[in-house]
Amino acid sequence: MILALDSYFEPWWIQIIKSLLIFGVALGILPLIIVYERKLLGRFQGRYGPNRVGPFGLLQPLAEIVKFATKEDSRPVTSIGPLYLAAPVISILTAVAAFALVPFGDVTNVFGTRVGLYGIDPSIGPLYVFAFGAIAFYGLMLGGWASGSKYSFLGAMRAAAQLISYEVSQGLALVGVIITAGSLSLTAIVHAQGGMWYFIPQCVGFLVFTIASFAETNRSPFDLIEADAELVAGYFTEYGGTRMVAFLFAEYLNMMVVSGIAVTLFLGGWLLPFGIHPPTWVDPFVVLAKMMVFISFFIWIRATLPRLRYDQLMSFGWKILLPLAMANTLVTAIIVVAVHK
Amino acid sequence: MTWSPGEDQITVQRAPEPGAAGGTYRAFGETLRGLKTTLARVVEGVHTIQYPEEKVPVYPRFRGRHKLHRFEDTGLEKCVGCSLCAAACPSDCIRVVAAENTPQERVSAGERYAAVYEINISRCIFCGYCEVACPFDAITMGHDFEMSDYNRSDLIFTKEMLLAEPIEATPLRTEGE
Known about the structure:
The complex is a heterodimer. By secondary structure, chain A is an all-alpha fold.
């Protein structure tokens, strides 16, 4: 079976190197993002945040990981062994797999070999992201269910209900972009934003996507899944040590994936405004910088808003976001058809 | 007069107004206002005082660790061992044992001197009554407050410790600060 032949121009060893690189970069950036979040959150509250471990507190996540890794590896008697072990793995794997899609640059020459600065560029880009996002639910659901604890199970139920509700709006918000760009390939969508980044014509879609992303990545004000003030920790109540870290890492990875997708689809990917064309090696850093801006916005929102009540969450998702996303799709489609006629 | 239940009814709104759209519109505006507020905190800067490195200056009348004083010209101790401080102390943490000065060995300016002068810092409540009671201004409250230690016995400060100058000076608040 041949899938999108033109995206397989790379030799097999480049693909392997890229896979390792993506895994390494993703898991290497995560601790930095965690410490960045804590420091920025501190600034929002008039304090420094962690600044004792290492220079500027940069080694704080390392200290925490060591702490978690040396914890006793325990699990409840009532848990279902293999599923309990598989859940964090599913969470991490799906997040990394989705991260492979984020394009950090166009196809470039690296030491005489043509390499696309992305994991893969399938012709079904956003669908791939949502497919893996849907598989990621299994991580949550299995984690909550296999723990054999009613609190975990309740947390998992809440997680499933929230994620499914908001995934609909999130997906629909992207349809406007896809219609405008006329392609499902993420690199093609970035190229289509040469004239104007899509967050201007697709401002409603961008808004809906951003809000739905908060819910999808389990971030405040939609962090009802974890809700540490009312539930203990939601679906991973019974997890401890490195497995809990795996869930937390998956959460932050999802945040990066969502930022990457938002940057790619709405904020012009590796393109810079005002006709600035830097050399190609700058492109990944442009994407990373834009992602950091988006993540900073996540943190800003977290520092600002309190958690929603569950009925507010549901009513907002279904009664506001979904119609808004649908109207956006409809209007975009009508305009695109009218212009092309 | 008969009581009608309608008079005491108070309408309590426990949920947002029905209709999600209006609430969302208001919430959106309030969100923007909240974002402005939190961003103002970032602009405002950090209020943390990095304590062990950076200390809050104390006021001149701050009552910290006690000091015993000597006369500056003769070097004799001001304390004459009268035990008034021990009598004034509400937590009973001062112990004074007086002894007679001899012409060969003069310790204080008066007839007697304090052979033993101990303050149990772990019991002291830093009320400053000893300072008030002292007729010779021999004991005053200093400005140091970092006196924690690992053993209770180390917290009984002897006369030599109280007479010595503290190693690290606590920053003092200047006028108008």
